[in-house]
Amino acid sequence: MAISAPNPAQLLYSRTIEVLGSIKEIQLFWGDLASLADSDSSVVISSNVYNEKREFVDQGLYPQPIGQAWTSLKTKFGLNGQDFKPVLEAAQGSSVWATSATMEHTLESHGSDFRRLIRIDCLKPEADAFDAPKNIFCIHTLPFRQTRNPETTQDDYSYTLAALLAAIRAQEVTDCLATRRYEPYQQLVMSALAAQQFDQPHVLLRHLMDAVSEWFVNSPKLKTIKICYWDKTIHQKLSRQLGRARAGNRELQVDDELRRNLLKEIGEAAIEKEELQAASTRLLLEEFRLELEQFRILDLVQHEAELITAIDNMLTVLNRDNPTTLEIGSASGRLSEGLVNHLCYCFYGKRPSTFHGGIEDLAAKLPTSARYKGMKISAWYKSYLHTLRILRNTSVHSQDEPETQFPIRLVPEDTWVLLVNLRRVVALHGQLISHRFK
User: Fold this and answer.
1) 431: Cα within 13 Å, side-chain hemisphere
2) Which residue numbers in the chain have pLDDT < 50?
3) How far apart are CA 194 and CA 145, in angstroms?
């Protein structure tokens, strides 16, 4: 069966890192970028100026995006490509958007009007575009890879990513000053920018993950970056190689194959099948999945986007045939922090500034909410939460642990301890918000 459009994006891998004392997350997806975009996100896509110049440029000055990511966004949210506004151009000698001598030669050969096509634009969807992202940034570039007569260099790819972050931050500041509200961007959804630079999708995704991890330092309020890639030719090629006849099975197999390649690329080992298939482990995972699914349908949980996302990610990891210890640790940590944030909101009407501080408040401060008047969490409930916090932090700093400590690193047995704690915390949380604590 021919594949003409991507299915909803499937999570391949997530990495949690700590930056300036705050936990950040990078997620890698395969599929439709538009399925990840919502009103809480800003979206970043890229477009090749040569295709635009031939088909979409008005008088050679106003590029409009082209490509699968833009097509999906335009279709889902009913967008108009005429409304993009320029944010940053690759002006000659720019101190923000540097260019190599090779790229300079290319731009000079095409003339000044063509140079103005190399830029970053921003579209702000109309208010009636339901659940549309806050912004859609489009970076218009030259091809970053040619086998003959190259027009750019590897350095230009790095320069362009740096310029992109500068443009996003500039627009963010402008938005905050214009609205007089400090609402920094917290989630970016990115296409695989300039994907043709790489032969293999898992290499591209690993490269982008490493590159954008540095963005969190310069954009401290940013919490999550989702990188999504899909290419019809690659998808069909992998499908044929896997030799499956049914499209549904093929889709799952392509995701699995990409994930396996990605884990090899980043050097992260999956938990052994024997561990996952042990009777006690299977029972724990089955019971925890059931607990999460029942918790997810509670009314107060349904209205909490942070919790719903964390639960969905946790279930995705648990349902894998090849989860890793660090993935389970990271997903558990995100869900644990979401639970603490939610409980603090229920108790005090606001979320805590830190995970640790939130746990301490729940055990020491009386709620301001009449619903929970006079209540504090018990010492052992607090202990469960701190255990989850410590294991989350260990997952984040897995590469930095000293070789002299014992044990040196987390192993699957620690993962099962984590899940037992988390299952109990989810159950207690459900009892509290359902008012079943008397």
Assistant:
1) 11
2) 1, 54-57, 60, 245-251
3) 9
Distance CA 286, CA 420 (A): 12
Assigned domain for 1 exists: no
Find the distance separating the first CA and the last CA of the chain, reported in whole Å. 57
Q: Across the chain, what does the average pLDDT equal?
A: 87
Count CB neighbours of 333 within 10 A.
Answer: 26
- Helices marked H in 349-411: 355-364, 379-396
137: three-class secondary structure by DSSP: strand
In this structure, are residues 20 and 110 in contact, taking their beta carbons and an 8 Å threshold? Answer: no
In single-letter form, the type of residue at position 150 comes to P
Q: Do 298 and 195 share a structural domain?
A: no
Contact 96, 120 (CB under 8 A): no
Same domain, 71 and 186: yes
- Cα–chain center distance at 229: 12
**Structural tokens at position 109:** 């050969």
Asked if residue 33 lies in contact with residue 72, where contact means CB atoms within 8 angstroms, the answer is yes
Q: Tell me the residue range of the domain where 175 lies.
A: 10-266
CB 170 within 8 A of CB 88: yes
Shared-domain flag, residues 156 and 286: no
The per-residue pLDDT for 22 is: 80
| Beta strand segments in 2-109, E | 10-19, 22-30, 42-48, 85-89
Residue whose tokens read 């400090």: 182
